[in-house]
Design goal:
Elements: E1 7-12, E2 15-20, H1 31-46, E3 52-57, H2 79-96, E4 101-105, E5 108-110, H3 112-119, E6 122-126, E7 130-132, H4 146-154, H5 156-165, E8 168-170, H6 171-176, E9 182-184, H7 189-201, H8 205-218, H9 223-238, H10 241-251
Parallel strand pairs: 2-3, 3-4, 4-6, 5-7, 6-9
Antiparallel strand pairs: 1-2, 7-8
Length: 261
Amino acid sequence: MANYTCILYQVENGICTITLNRPDSYNSFNNEMSYELIDALKTAEKDELTRVVILAATGKAFCSGQDLKDRTPGKEIDFRESLEKRYNPIIKGIRNLSKPVICKLQGVAAGAGCSLALACDLIIASKEATLVEVFVNIGLVLDSGSSYFLPRLVGYHKAFEWSTLGTKITAEEAHNVGIINKITNPEDLDALVEEYALKYAVAPTKAIALIKKMLNKGMNEDLETMLEYEKHCQVIAGASSDFKEGTSAFLEKRKPTFLGK
């Protein structure tokens, strides 16, 4: 396993925790952290022991977006290269990961950091957490998937307001509109995230991977297409060991022991 300098990587009890670890810069993205996160997501995908991923951060902030100080003096930022090689692979890595990804949101998630949180499958947040699409404040537009996720989550008008005014969204407001799944007191955040992660660590992982693919596809397809895709996925799920275990456990009136296969 790679030795990372900007993130922490740990696997225990089927739970992979990837932690952004640049607290002095509010976990803003420099080149190194971007590429390390891409690699960590690939590692989690390949690891058969990993059943669920927690995306977390150290310090007060979750992620403040791009580190504006991380640039070569006198050289213009190559936005195309940055998005193609760094940010887009991160977002795709989360959405294509065949395991659920839980965002543990303990502070501000701004710019690309906000996009990072939105890309996760579940967001569990401290009541003190905030989200902000800060791009417009420096004359930029949404990137890293925010223009895809945000209007689907909250509708066009609210997405337009938040994106064009750079509005700071509180955890409570984000919870009320369905962006955040659960909010809790800061001191209870670790325990609540672990509670969810442990549920997924013993869940039928293959079925959840298929459900994740179906929901992603379902946001862009018509009913007829999805009915066919559901049929395709159900055939795969029905041939899994977890289905056999689930039905046996039901008939035997016991709790199933899913292996994620």
